[in-house]
Write a structure and sequence with these properties.
Distance between the termini: 37 Å
Radius of gyration: 14 Å
Strand content: 5-15%
CATH topology: Arc Repressor Mutant, subunit A
Strand order of the largest sheet: 1-2
Shape: elongated
C-alpha cells in the first residue's frame, strides 16, 4: 500500500464525521504501525483532493461522494 492508500483508508474509517489531520496520523500509526510526518500526510491529502477522492470541510476530511452517471452528464453539459 502507498501513503495515499493509507490516508484514504484513514479518512474512510472516520466515516461521516470526517477526520482531522492529527486523527489521520493517529489512525495510520495504530493500523499500519507507521509514524508519518505531517507534511507527508498533507501532500497525500492534497493529491487525493485534487483527484476528487476526498474533500475538506471545516478542517475535517471526508470521502467525496461519488456522483451518478446522470449527475456527471448534467454537470458536464451545464444542465445542473
Amino acid at each position: 500500500m502507498t501513503v495515499d492508500d493509507w490516508v484514504f483508508e484513514a479518512v474512510e474509517r472516520a466515516a461521516a464525521s470526517g477526520a482531522t489531520l492529527r486523527e489521520i496520523q493517529r489512525s495510520i500509526d495504530e493500523h499500519h504501525y507507521e509514524e508519518l510526518a505531517i507534511d507527508t500526510i498533507e501532500t497525500s491529502l492534497a493529491a487525493l483532493a485534487a483527484a476528487g477522492r476526498i474533500v475538506e470541510r471545516e478542517g475535517r476530511w471526508r470521502v467525496q461522494r461519488s456522483t451518478s452517471k446522470e449527475d456527471a452528464l448534467k454537470r458536464l453539459f451545464g444542465d445542473a
